[in-house]
What we know:
Elements lengths: L1 H6 L3 E4 L18 E7 H4 L10 E7 L7 E3 L22 E8 L8 E2 L1 H10 L9 E5 L2 H5 L10 E2 L1 H9 L4 E4 L11 H11 L2 E4 L13 E4 L10 E3 L3 E4 L1
Parallel strand pairs: 5-7, 6-8, 7-9, 9-10
Antiparallel strand pairs: 1-13, 2-3, 4-10, 4-12, 5-11, 11-13
Helix pairs in contact: 5-6
Amino acid sequence: MEKNQKEKLPEIIDLSQEIFSGMPVYKKLPQVRIKTHATHEEWEGIKNPKTVSPSVLKLEMGEHTGTHVDALSHMGRKYRAQSIETMPLSMFYTEGICLDLSHKGLEEFMEPGDLEAACAKDAVKIKSGDTVLLHTDHYRRAYGSANWSKGPGLSIAAARWLGEQKVAAFGVETMAPGIPGRSNKEVHRICGELGFTHYENMINLEQLVGRGRFRFIGLPLRIRGGTGSPVRAIAVFE
Length: 238
């Protein structure tokens, strides 16, 4: 009986970056600083301890830190009422698929034809309400290097194509969904216009490729007026 119960446990794959002081952030966004606010030794009245054990950490960072989701309010002024706490939780708890775009190089566009070809290759179909994750392998290839900010990105046409499939969201391994200076602002605008969102800085997508559908969960913090939120994104295979 115990053996059968273990066999039925779902497989959970963590898709989230670790958050730490000094980690890479996009352009001029707030740097991440994590400091000890209180220690167990202070609480217990231990004087001059040889070791210090944090009991509370102080986090200083922006909403768009590490693996995070953008609120629709981030996409443009006209969407400012749609902050993160107003968005339905059903947008962050969906079915998911992962498409293999790992052949894409630095600052190379992912086009609608690439997305269609990736669907055909793994015999998957995008359904309304899906979260579509885009595996480029850029995290493993470039995280922490000079090329980290130069990953592949969606073209304007590809972003619109995804929106036309009525997806809830898509997710990328890079710090931006489009290519900065070429398509990134327009990709955000299209998300606002068509009412879908995206996740950035995802990891472990190579573990999802070719495996079909899974449950995707990427719940944001309930930040009043938030333009986005860090998430602990996971894929669940039953």
